[in-house]
Design brief:
Helices cover 40% and strands 19% of the residues. It is an alpha/beta fold.
């Protein structure tokens, strides 16, 4: 009985929360949840949100959860919310998956254990030129800060599943 109580106390104090922001159109919160392997789902409290979720709503949810580790992931348009949430909550791990990078981005609150996993050519055309340019600048600054940058030729919608299987434990 003593071991069971000890195990429950450890689990209660070692709760990892994973916040995931999806993207526009078919990259919904529900779809993002499908991309996460079972071993990750079973080892974390998971909060999955749409790309346009108000980050204050997520902050309020996080304030109600007892956690020892916070991981924040954003895919595509959901990448913008990662910058906002990271600035407010200082997570332990950040993953940017082929992200839209906002004009006013900064790495404030980003831990060294952050990953940018992207394909700059997934953002074609003149309208998305700013995102392409900001992704490359972000990559440059993250490298300077000792963070991980992985640029591949994967298609945009393949990124989440690959990221979770490759870079999450």
């Amino acid at each position: 009985m003593r071991e069971l109580i000890k195990k429950l106390l450890i689990e209660e104090t070692e709760n990892t929360v994973l916040v995931v922001f999806g993207g526009i159109r078919s990259a919904t919160a529900a779809w993002m949840l499908e991309q996460i392997p079972e071993n990750i789902k079973s080892s974390r409290t998971i909060i999955v949100k749409e790309w346009n979720t108000n980050t204050q709503e997520v902050i309020d949810e996080l304030n109600e959860i007892n956690h020892s580790r916070l991981e924040v992931i954003g895919f595509s348009a959901g990448g913008s919310n990662v910058f906002k949430l990271t600035k407010a909550k200082n997570p332990d791990f950040v993953g940017l998956i082929d992200p839209a990078v906002p004009r006013d981005w900064s790495l404030e609150g980003f831990p060294t254990d952050s990953i940018l996993f992207f394909n700059n050519s997934n953002w074609p055309g003149d309208i998305l030129k700013g995102i392409r340019e900001r992704q490359l600048l972000l990559a440059e600054v993250m490298v300077e800060k000792g963070m991980t940058i992985v640029e591949t030729d994967d298609t945009h919608m393949a990124f989440p599943k690959i990221f979770f299987e490759t870079y999450m434990k």
